[in-house]
Backbone:
């Protein structure tokens, strides 16, 4: 236990109070909370850190320890997510402390029992805070707890320091001190005050504001963006603009300094890029945070994929703790990057970690509006993405340097042009009954982009005329063997096409018999068996038994499901509605991309109920997996049959055999699953939501649907 030897203390006077251990009062949570130092209650993380750095004692350390003790009620030395959430609910002190930096804690109220009334948004934030601290572990010790909140304190202190500078600049523009300034006030201030000009538009020659048309337009555009249609800019408008939009220009303007991707031949839609296509694709890599020396595997992966890589070097790095306020630090170097863009004419600009600040600066000054890839969502990202480019942002839920809530990133990506923005996000799965996780979200050095050729595919996605999201979905086929792809193509991805194989009278599937045995020597049997036994080209994320033993496993029989009522009343209407929804989002429905073949396991009684139901088949709202904590609620399907068998999702029958369904699943536009998801999936383009969830956006092996009709049971496979 990290703090067992420390005496009990009070920060009210900055001194410890001696006592024998915790005493009886610690047993009562509310009494312990009342004893906590006034500094914890009345001062922010930033204020505590500032006092500590000024030599007034370990103020922040003492506050962190005090809050940790409140959460760790049993003195076990570590806390679970349940203990963490419970403490937030019981103690207003803990709630306000934990939620600093999320803008959710100013007015926390307690009911008559002393419990804190917190909304769902706040609890989602608490959940993500724990995941960020834990890095995928079930419990958090004090060192991880303290390290996380010290990072939050540093960010808050940096923002507080920046606000002081903002007030000085605002006062210089608001010369008559009436609390707001006009466009003329701003133009005059930037012309007469070099500090104001360099603060708002680094690199601008203040003396030429009224002489140079482009400079004047830039200043006017800046004012219009701050004022949002009003005649004047007040302090809160100015502060919001500076802190949250990071001096963002109006993206719709296109100054002559703007560079875009040159008009070389685009990657072929619907296919993986050839080596020739990649060799003609020049990538400008902004070196800080991404370089041959720092991350040689990433660089080698791009080079081996065939891209032309050009490095923009000699750019300074900076401390991650102040990353939100680096615009002024990177601004002097943006002209250098622009000159390299003009020189080499890249088709995509790639940045990682600290390099993200330079990429944001290029967007803000209009120096680059071509395809962009950002590894690690930089804290200086604006509240609105540029409108002219395809943008791919990659981020992991366990990033220990850049603390983002997933919902904030998802909302940010919706501000980009429709179907031109992709958030490649990796997150932790929910816990299994064993207490383990099936997948972990990336840390700051993203491990997942090195697997399954993901990094080159993200670059391809940014370049693809299909749009990055559609391209990534299409690229999932590269995670299947050629034999399986051939077999799936033979079966088809169309519900109507499947009926060509039906044996019921008139191929109607209405004669009362839902199962028809497929002859073992037929082409149909061979194709279904190929899909059943297929191994992916690269090792799967879930592997419990050897592939060799799986391939030798005998198949007893394959039965075709023919239920015309279910297909016509449920799956076809759903498919047609999905097609219309995608069309309204500007996406053409492609069955080979928006549908997939996958497996579903259950006991025999449940499978027969799915097969014989005259209308609905799969019913996610009443299925056994609707409360699954792994990837959210819904009906689960697996890419590989072996996963269903290894995971014991198809229990053995009395004769020792097992069975599972091969299904045609309508994925539509999927999102990464969320173990904390409650109810429906998030919005993609309002009013349209995502249609399904997956366990990985790079190489999904688990699919989750929530709607009746989203999956058609096609074959019942019985095996040893």
Residues:
């Amino acid at each position: 236990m990290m703090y067992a030897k420390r005496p009990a203390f009070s920060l009210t006077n900055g001194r410890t109070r001696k006592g024998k251990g915790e005493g009886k009062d610690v047993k009562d949570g509310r009494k312990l909370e009342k004893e906590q130092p006034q500094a914890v209650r009345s001062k922010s993380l930033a204020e505590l850190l500032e006092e500590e750095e000024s030599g007034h004692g370990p103020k922040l350390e003492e506050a962190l320890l005090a809050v940790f003790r409140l959460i760790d009620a049993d003195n076990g030395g570590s806390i679970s997510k349940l203990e963490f959430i419970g403490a937030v609910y019981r103690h207003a002190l803990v709630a306000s402390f934990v939620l600093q930096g999320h803008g959710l804690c100013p007015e926390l109220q307690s009911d008559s029992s002393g419990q804190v009334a917190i909304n769902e948004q706040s609890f989602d934030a608490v959940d993500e805070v724990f995941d960020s601290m834990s890095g995928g572990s079930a419990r958090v010790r004090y060192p991880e707890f303290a390290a996380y909140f010290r990072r939050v304190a540093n960010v808050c202190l940096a923002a507080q320091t920046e606000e002081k500078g903002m007030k000085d600049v605002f006062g210089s523009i608001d010369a008559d001190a009436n609390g707001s300034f006009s466009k003329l006030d701003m133009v005059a201030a930037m012309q007469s005050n070099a500090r104001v000009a360099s603060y708002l538009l680094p690199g601008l020659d203040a003396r030429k504001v009224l002489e140079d048309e482009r400079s004047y337009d830039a200043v006017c555009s800046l004012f219009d963006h701050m004022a949002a249609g009003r005649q004047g800019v007040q302090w809160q408008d100015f502060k919001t603009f500076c802190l949250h939009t990071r001096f963002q220009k109006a993206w719709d303007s296109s100054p002559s300094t703007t560079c875009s991707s040159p008009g070389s031949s685009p990657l072929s839609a619907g296919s993986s890029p050839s080596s020739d296509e990649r060799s003609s694709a020049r990538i400008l890599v902004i070196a800080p945070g991404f370089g041959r020396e720092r991350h040689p595997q990433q660089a080698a992966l791009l080079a081996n994929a065939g891209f032309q890589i050009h490095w923009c070097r000699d750019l300074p790095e900076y401390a991650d703790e102040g990353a939100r306020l680096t615009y002024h630090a990177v601004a002097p170097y943006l002209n250098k990057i622009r000159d390299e863009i003009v020189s080499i004419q890249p088709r995509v600009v790639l940045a990682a970690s600290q390099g993200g600040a330079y990429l944001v600066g290029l967007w803000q000054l209009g120096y680059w509006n071509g395809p962009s890839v950002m590894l690690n969502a930089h804290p200086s990202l604006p509240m609105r993405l540029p409108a002219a480019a395809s943008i791919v942002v990659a981020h992991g839920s366990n990033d220990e340097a850049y603390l983002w809530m997933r919902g904030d990133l998802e909302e940010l990506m919706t501000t980009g042009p429709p179907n031109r923005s992709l958030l490649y996000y990796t997150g932790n799965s929910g816990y299994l009954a064993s207490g383990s996780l099936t997948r972990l979200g990336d840390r700051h050095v993203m491990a997942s982009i090195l697997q399954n050729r993901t990094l080159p595919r993200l670059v391809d996605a940014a370049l693809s005329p299909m749009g990055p999201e559609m391209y990534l979905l299409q690229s999932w086929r590269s995670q299947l063997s050629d034999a399986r792809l051939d077999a799936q193509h033979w079966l088809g991805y169309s519900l109507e096409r499947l009926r060509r194989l039906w044996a019921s009278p008139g191929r109607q599937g209405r004669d009362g018999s839902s199962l028809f045995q497929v002859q073992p020597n037929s082409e149909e049997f061979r194709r279904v068996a190929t899909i059943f036994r297929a191994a992916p080209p690269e090792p799967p994320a879930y592997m419990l038994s050897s592939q060799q033993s799986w391939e030798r496993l005998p198949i007893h029989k394959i039965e075709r499901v023919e239920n015309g009522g279910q297909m016509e009343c449920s799956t076809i209407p759903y498919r047609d509605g999905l097609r219309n929804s995608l069309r309204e989002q500007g996406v053409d429905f492609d069955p080979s991309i928006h549908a997939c073949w996958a497996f579903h396991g259950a006991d025999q009684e449940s499978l027969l109920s799915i097969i014989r139901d005259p209308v609905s088949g799969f019913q996610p709202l009443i299925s056994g997996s609707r409360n699954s904590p792994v990837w959210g609620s819904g009906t689960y399907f697996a890419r590989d049959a072996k996963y269903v068998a290894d995971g014991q999702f198809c229990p053995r029958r009395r004769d020792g055999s097992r069975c599972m369904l091969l299904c045609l699943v309508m994925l539509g536009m999927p999102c990464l699953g969320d173990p904390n998801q409650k109810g429906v999936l998030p919005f993609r383009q309002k009013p349209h939501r995502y249609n399904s969830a997956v366990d990985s956006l790079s190489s999904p092996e688990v699919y989750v649907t929530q709607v009746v009709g989203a999956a058609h049971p096609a074959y019942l496979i019985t095996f040893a």
Remarks:
- The chain is about 40% helix and 15% strand.
- The mean pLDDT is 80.
- The chain has four domains: 45-154, 174-246, 275-475, 480-719.
